[in-house]
Write a structure and sequence with these properties.
The complex is a heterodimer of chains A (248) and B (401).
Chain A (H helix, E strand, L loop, with lengths): L1 E10 L2 E11 L4 E5 L6 H9 L5 E9 L2 E2 L5 H7 L1 E4 L6 E5 H15 L7 H14 L10 E2 L5 H15 L3 E5 L7 H13 L6 E6 L3 H5 L4 E6 L2 E6 L1 H10 L1 H5 L3
Parallel strand pairs in A: 3-10, 3-11, 6-9, 9-10
Antiparallel strand pairs in A: 1-2, 1-4, 4-5, 7-8, 11-12
Chain B lengths: L8 H20 L17 H14 L10 H7 L8 E4 L11 H4 L3 H4 L7 H7 L4 E5 L5 E7 L5 E9 L4 E9 L2 E11 L4 E8 L6 E11 L4 E8 L4 E10 L5 E10 L4 E10 L5 E10 L4 E10 L7 E10 L5 E10 L5 E10 L2 H9 L4 H17 L5 H18 L1
Parallel strand pairs in B: 2-4, 3-5, 4-6, 5-7, 6-8, 7-9, 8-10, 9-11, 10-12, 11-13, 12-14, 13-15, 14-16, 15-17
Antiparallel strand pairs in B: 1-3
Classes of the chains: A alpha/beta (248), B alpha/beta (401).
Chain lengths: 248, 401
């Protein structure tokens, strides 16, 4: 589904990713862990198509398409979803307007007619119920005045509505207390399916206690230095990054 | 009060040449044939005009629009004394103007303020006048269509104590309109005024002077929406004369390419426990200009004043220009006065967020432009009017950007 091969990325002339490779198959959950400055958020931003990142070398292929040549909206239409680390507030755009525009753009890309209002509302209510969200939040402006937990839940809600094939979660656990983390994790687990893959980028082990990964990769200095199963995350939790990065 | 002379020469010159270009374009487009000035239709003499042009700089310390641009207008358009054409009063119940005998007793005329500028004085002397006294629950509506030349109108409205009323003012078409509004609100009276400036072109020039006088616990709310004009200047002067009076002024402008929207406000707190709020937003296209000047004056007796002012401009292109000039003039010590001004471009992270969810960039931009003005639109209390304004702005933004 996703194949990253020898990816080198610079930000303002400074190399951040230095030959990262990763292969993700449908249904798999990959965790990418690493210390601060390892390049975790750069990876998420490059996959989503954020401006300001220069790809020096390597390629990213998503379902046979060169992802790096696609505009952010095209990546979304193809089925890539980034759950932002810091979802931005957009005053004056309601969640309904926002999701209507997003859904209809997805449908247009597939040659489908726009959804009518009653179908749209039925879909939104159904997904909100799945995530135990109060439907009143649909009429609020996007992320405006949302707490940290609400914002992350809203990200997962958008994911449920847009039904992507590949989900990249950029430190979704940061800033969440234990209760919010549990709610978000349960929502993600509810959305796991054989056709959908997850790449969970995180600093901490704790989210992986709730969302059990198939593979854990350690990202350090722009490359994946170790890969393993879920037990690798536990090892990290016990020993820290230091002994894994600099074995005696 | 002594006026301070801090003229911004550069802006004045820029503004003057901008307007000269507008007038040339107007003439070249032959929207208004020239020369059309008719001596018989003059209501001001050449000598009066000269005074206007030379005096105006002294009366106001800064003005983005140099009023001597009328010198150029003079060559191209006729000055008429006919009132603006009232095309319809369909949306609201209509109200006939007062008869001459009644005019003698209208409170609004007694509260008419001393003119601050020669232009105010000029517009107060307009022969075309309409006077109204509204009763509780009344709604007065005008749809004006510019007659395609320069025309002027003075309208006074008085609202008796404890009455609640609404005025809708929609102005359309090309040419010049000079409009002077004076409102008198009796004790506890409440008035909402909508000024919708739309359906114009680069050959549309609108000059509004609105003065109002508020007695104890009276409250006024104004909503000024602009979509398609070449040039528009709105001057507001609100005097909170009675204790507990309040004013809420709102404005949202979509400033088209080459257009200029200029707003000047003076809110005067002359009694304790008075409150005022200004919320204005401008969305400025390439080569468009927005100018905003808002002054809050607090007299020494006006303790416990609560005043706020906000002007935000969003520039669509690097060639768009916004001037903001917030001013506080406070002579009382126990007051709360704040202001906020921002000018800038669309935030890249908002655009990225929408695009990352699959919304194409042009649509995402339109959504964000519209959202920028939504904060003001949402203040409109009446649902049907709010959605009409919202749709109108969306249409214009969708068609232009």
């Amino acid at each position: 589904m996703l194949s990253i091969d020898n990816l080198h990325v610079s930000v303002e002339g400074r190399p951040i990713l230095k030959g990262l490779s990763l292969a993700v198959k449908p249904g798999e959950v990959h965790a990418i862990m690493g210390p601060n400055g390892a390049g975790k958020s750069t990876l998420a931003s490059v996959l989503a198509g954020r401006e300001g990142y220069e790809v020096i070398e390597g390629e990213v292929v998503f379902e046979g398409q060169n992802l790096l040549e696609m505009a952010p909206e095209e990546r979304s239409h193809a089925g890539v979803f980034l759950a932002f680390q810091y979802p931005v507030e957009i005053p004056g755009v309601s969640m309904i307007q926002f999701l209507r525009a997003a859904l209809n753009a997805h449908r247009a890309a597939k040659g489908l007619e726009p959804l009518d209002t009653s179908d749209l509302m039925a879909l939104l209510r159904e997904k909100a119920a799945l995530l135990k969200l109060d439907p009143s939040f649909l009429s609020r402006s996007v992320n405006e005045g949302f707490s940290g937990g609400e914002r992350k839940r809203a990200e997962i809600f958008q994911m449920a509505v847009l039904d992507p094939k590949l989900v990249i979660m950029d430190e979704t656990d940061s800033g969440l207390d234990i209760d919010a983390l549990r709610v978000v994790s349960e929502a993600v687990n509810a959305l796991r399916s054989p056709g959908r893959a997850f790449v969970i980028i995180t600093h901490y082990y704790r989210i992986l206690q709730y969302i059990r990964p198939d593979f854990v990769h350690i990202l350090a200095d722009g490359r994946i230095v170790r890969s393993g199963g879920a037990e690798l995350a536990l090892e990290l939790e016990e020993k820290g990054y230091e002994p894994l990065l600099n074995p005696a | 009060m002594a006026s301070t002379l801090t003229q911004d020469k550069l802006s004045l010159e820029a503004g003057a040449s901008h307007l000269t270009n507008l007038f040339r374009a107007l003439r070249d487009a032959q929207v208004i044939p020239s020369p059309l000035r008719s001596k018989s239709h003059q209501w001001v003499s050449d000598a009066d005009l000269l005074t206007l042009f030379t005096e105006q700089a002294l009366k106001e310390d800064w003005k983005y629009t140099p009023m001597d641009f009328f010198r150029y207008a003079w060559d191209y358009v006729p000055f008429q004394t006919e009132p603006l054409h009232i095309a319809s009063q369909s949306a609201f119940s209509s109200k006939s103007p007062l008869s001459l005998a009644e005019v003698e007793r209208i409170e609004a005329l007694r509260s008419f303020p001393e003119p601050l500028s020669p232009w105010e004085a000029l517009l107060s002397g307009i022969p075309a006048q309409l006077h109204y006294r509204l009763v509780d629950g009344e709604r007065l509506a005008f749809t004006l269509r510019n007659p395609g030349s320069l025309s002027a109108q003075l309208i006074t409205v008085s609202l008796p104590a404890h009455a609640e009323a609404e005025i809708g003012f929609s102005i359309k078409g090309e040419g010049f309109s000079l409009l002077r509004f004076h409102l008198h609100l009796g004790e506890g009276a409440q008035l909402r005024l909508y000024y919708l400036s739309e359906d114009g072109s680069e050959s549309t020039y609108r000059y509004l002077i609105l003065t109002s006088y508020l007695e104890k616990n009276a409250s006024i709310a104004t909503y000024d929406f602009t979509t398609e004009v070449g040039w528009k200047r709105s001057e507001y002067r609100v005097r909170l004369a009675g204790e507990g009076a309040s004013a809420h002024l709102h404005g949202a402008a979509y400033v088209r390419e080459h257009a200029l929207v200029d707003t000047a406000i003076r809110v005067e707190h002359f009694a304790p426990h008075t409150e005022s709020n200004q919320l204005f937003k401008s969305l400025v296209q390439a080569k468009g200009r927005s100018a905003f000047q808002g002054r809050i004056f607090v007299d020494r007796v006006a303790q416990k004043t609560n005043a706020y002012q906000s002007h935000k401009a969003l520039l669509i292109a690097p060639t768009a220009v916004a001037y903001s000039r917030p001013q506080l003039e406070i002579f009382a010590d126990d007051v709360r006065c704040t202001h906020g001004v921002t000018t800038g471009f669309l935030q890249g992270d908002m655009l990225m967020y929408l695009r990352a969810r699959g919304i194409p960039e042009p649509t995402a931009r339109q959504m964000l432009y519209r959202a920028f003005l939504t904060e003001v639109v949402e203040k409109v209390p009446e649902v049907s009017l709010r959605s009409w304004i919202d749709n109108r702005l969306s249409d214009v933004i969708g068609a232009q950007s």
